[in-house]
């Protein structure tokens, strides 16, 4: 069983986050960019980590043997004395009543296991808790896995930005999800989280506590 912890990004994790960014996006944001995000009151960054139990903390996390078995990338592992390894990252900006999701990343070795859905759930749950009314993001039309994920949460296409992605020259689809404070959205979140729980169980993942997501912020 691999234990996961979801929590806000800290300065101590910046190096690991920059390396995950490089793996997933080829270097979308620099270290100084993430530092600015940490200092911004309108930016919310969440990270997903696997951990190992220590005598000092008693925190139940994945063992060092499991790290090897799971082939975790050495370049994103933190200080081995802490036995932490970064698996996911999510960020949104709160702009008036809008949550603008800017980053959703899962380590390439751990995609399609429910971790991306867990990260998106956590971001949207946090936005709802902060009384935001709608969410938006940009995505490549060719990224069918991401589109499928966003559609599960009720996002719909609201526009297109021409040649938005410099690496491929692709347009960006602008997706939008309103009604974050409505009962219907709460039901969508509940349904999506139930799906996440089942998928994590099948993948031998376990969150540290049942309240891990609610307490992420």
Automatic annotation (TrEMBL):
One Pfam family linked to the record: Acetyltransf_1
Domain N-acetyltransferase: 4-178
InterPro entries: AcTrfase_RimI/Ard1 (IPR006464), Acyl_CoA_acyltransferase (IPR016181), GNAT_dom (IPR000182), YpeA/RimI_acetyltransf (IPR050680)
Superkingdom per UniProt: Bacteria
Protein's UniProt keywords contain Heme: no
Entry GO terms, CC: ribosome
Any GO MF annotation of the entry: N-acetyltransferase activity
Record keywords, A-Z: Acyltransferase, Cytoplasm, Ribonucleoprotein, Ribosomal protein, Transferase
Signal peptide per UniProt: none
Protein name: Ribosomal protein S18-alanine N-acetyltransferase
Family: Belongs to the acetyltransferase family. RimI subfamily.
Gene name of the record: rimI
């Amino acid at each position: 069983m691999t234990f996961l912890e979801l929590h806000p990004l800290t300065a101590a994790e910046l190096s690991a986050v920059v390396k995950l960014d490089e793996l997933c996006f080829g270097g979308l944001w620099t270290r100084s960019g993430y530092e600015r995000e940490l200092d911004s009151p309108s930016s919310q960054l969440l990270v997903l980590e696997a951990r190992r139990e220590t005598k000092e903390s008693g925190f139940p996390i994945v063992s060092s043997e499991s790290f090897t078995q799971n082939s975790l990338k050495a370049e994103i592992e933190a200080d081995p004395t802490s036995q932490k390894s970064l698996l996911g990252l999510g960020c949104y900006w709160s702009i008036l009543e809008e949550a603008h999701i800017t980053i959703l990343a899962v380590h390439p070795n751990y995609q399609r296991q429910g971790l991306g859905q867990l990260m998106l759930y956590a971001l949207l749950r946090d936005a709802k808790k902060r009384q935001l009314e709608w969410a938006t993001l940009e995505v490549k039309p060719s990224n069918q896995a991401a589109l499928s994920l966003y559609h599960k949460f009720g996002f719909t296409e609201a526009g297109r930005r021409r040649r938005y992605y410099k690496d491929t020259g692709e347009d960006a689809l602008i997706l939008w999800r309103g009604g974050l404070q409505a009962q219907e959205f709460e039901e969508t979140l509940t349904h999506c989280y139930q799906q996440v729980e089942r998928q994590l169980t099948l993948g031998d993942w376990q969150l540290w506590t049942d309240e891990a997501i609610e307490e992420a912020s």
